[in-house]
Design brief:
By secondary structure, the chain is of the alpha/beta class. It is built from ten helices and eleven strands.
């Protein structure tokens, strides 16, 4: 017996939920609105349930509709995974690759690598995005990323993931020029720093507890979306904190920021790269092997 629930019908439900209306869903799927309405009406009739109710101009899922869509999205993802696996088995190359890059490195860190890769396989889609702290690990676990570059060490072991050392990232404690801490003329202690607001890049992990590095317990905190925002906030004198050395060399040279030594704090952070075990695509293997041959290099210092 043929099921009333088809992948096409689930894709229509998904589009309506994401776009908020039948008309917007039709536009995103390159179909006429009447075809979208027919698909939903037929599915409701076959299942003998109501899937959507109108709230003004918006189509809202009923509880039954929400259940169908949430579990249906798993089927849609499974179908996409099967299609991708089939293409890989045929050619050995993935049709697309999702790469998460730690925000302390920035996605432009991998641009030279991408230029080399596109010279070999220009037709493969590469999706780059930044993650902060635990966000990269979570992106791998949630299958939002196939490869993550520049991950901080994780205290949580996950046998589904494989990782290796990528290199050390040097950080410096930086304050705006003219800040009171810059006038002390000696290495700073925790007690010196604690009265001043710390600027922190927000952990991008969606499900795990938020993490912070090199944050002193009694400090007031300003959390910002990215390392770029953290740099801008510290230049504006809104707070203090550690920044990647290679990001701020122009500001150090101009005096916009001043680097200060802090007693008892390790300035280098070991970074990893990681991927899910069992992935055999040739594109992923190319990136892993190439990155292993080119570990993260310390920045050249300014004169």
């Amino acid at each position: 017996m043929q099921s009333a629930i088809t992948l096409e019908a689930l894709a229509v439900l998904d589009a309506i939920d994401r776009r908020g209306s039948f008309a917007a869903a039709a536009d995103s799927l390159n179909r006429v609105p009447s075809a979208i309405s027919y698909t939903v009406q037929k599915l409701e009739q076959d299942l003998a349930v109501t899937l959507f109710v109108r709230e003004g101009r918006k189509a809202v899922l009923t509880p039954a509709g929400r259940l169908l869509l949430e579990q249906g999205r798993q089927l849609l993802q499974a179908a996409d995974d099967l299609a991708e696996a089939t293409r890989q088995r045929h050619s050995g190359w993935e049709s697309s690759l999702n790469i998460a890059v730690e925000a302390a490195l920035g996605v432009d860190h991998v641009y030279p690598l991408l230029a080399e890769f596109f010279a070999i396989k220009p037709d493969i889609e590469i999706n780059l995005f930044e993650e902060v702290l635990g966000g990269g690990w979570e992106a791998l676990q949630d299958k939002r990323a196939d490869l993550a570059i520049g991950l901080p060490p994780s205290a949580v072991a996950d046998d589904r993931l494989q990782s290796c050392v990528y290199g050390d990232l040097p950080w410096v404690f930086a304050v705006a020029g003219g800040h009171p801490l810059a006038l002390l003329g000696r290495p700073l202690t925790t007690r010196d720093i604690e009265p001043y607001r710390a600027v922190v890049a927000r952990d991008s992990a969606r499900h795990s507890p938020s993490a912070s590095y090199r944050l002193f317990s009694r400090q007031p905190v300003l959390r910002v979306p990215s390392v770029r925002d953290k740099l801008a906030a510290q230049k504006a004198g809104l707070g203090v904190g550690f920044l990647p050395l290679y990001w701020i060399q122009p500001e150090l040279a101009s005096g916009e920021l001043v680097a200060l030594a802090v007693e008892g704090v390790e300035n280098n952070t070991p970074l990893l790269m990681a991927w899910r075990r069992g992935q055999q695509g040739r594109a992923l293997r190319w990136f892993i092997e190439t990155l292993r041959q080119r570990p993260l290099q310390p920045p050249a210092t300014t004169s």
